[in-house]
Each structure stands twice: as structure tokens, then as C-alpha cells.
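Hi F.,

I've been meaning to write this up properly since the lab meeting, where we talked about keeping a consistent format for the predictions we share between groups. The idea is simple: the sequence comes first, exactly as it goes in, then the C-alpha cells exactly as they come out, then a line or two of notes. No screenshots and no reformatting. I'm using this chain as the first example so we have something concrete to point to.
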Amino acid sequence: MRVRHRHAPRWTLATNFAYCCHKDFQPTSEDEPTPTTAGQYDVGVPVVQHLGATDLRRTVIAFRDLMKSHSEGINRLNVYPVPDGDTGTNMSRTLDAVVAELETAGEDMGAVCVAISHGSLMGARGNSGVILSQILRGLSSTLATTSGGVPADTVAAAMKAASVA
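Output, unedited:
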């Protein structure tokens, strides 16, 4: 079972990135998506053209929910820097703080990004929470500079900023 088979009905943004951004993707079976005339892959969900504040908020909430559901497995994988078995728990608790901050944030992109950044910094738990906080702050610092819907190239730039934060 692939990730998109399990999580696509819940939230589609990751599925869109995974299948619409990889030009060399080739379907492997009949139940896989096939290219449309526009070169996009029809995965049975709407393609997000622009990421809005509500979309970002929903993505973070879905990320928190998925992290919680996988935290025990991540805890079992935890071996670096100390095999203390709490990486998944610490990341989940950090994301809980982010979502709590989002609940009091305004509706515009800037307010959502400030909430993500502040919530992750103040709610970071353990080394993994601090690392996650840096990633979320890198992502939100790029997205906060936009108004309206964020196009895919800006989302890509934000992910790059997150990877070097």
C-alpha cells in the first residue's frame, strides 16, 4: 500500500505534490494514476493550484494527526542521538503546540505562519521537536511573505528554505 492510498482521502496536498511534480513518474499498474492531456496525474482528488491560509492550517493539523498515529513506530526507530524512544512523542507534542497556537490565529496567511513559527518554537519538545521547529519556521518564513494563494513554485521555495533552516 502506498502513502497516497492510505492518506489521500484525508488530505490531498501531499498527493498532489507527489504525483504532479514528478515528471518521470510512470504508473506501475492499472490502478495507478495515468497522465491527463495536461500532463497532470488524475488521482481522483482535486489538484490544489494555490495554497491558501486555510489549506496550510489544514495541512498542519493533518500532519499533527498523522504524526500522532505513527508516533509509536517512530519511537521504536529512535536511535540517534540517544536511543531514548521518544522522538515520535516529542514531535507529536511539538505539533500539538502548533495546532493550539493556530486555534487563536487570524485567518490570513501571515497570521497562520506566525502561529506555526511561534507555536513550534515555544512548544518544541526534545531534540526532535527543536529540529521540527526549525523546519516549520523555515517553511513559514517563506510562506508568510505572500498574500493570497501561494503558487507551487513558492511552496517549493518554502520547502527548500525549510530543508536548510
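Notes:
The chain has two domains: 1-47, 50-163.
Residues 50-163 form one domain.

If this format works for you, I'll send the rest the same way.

G.
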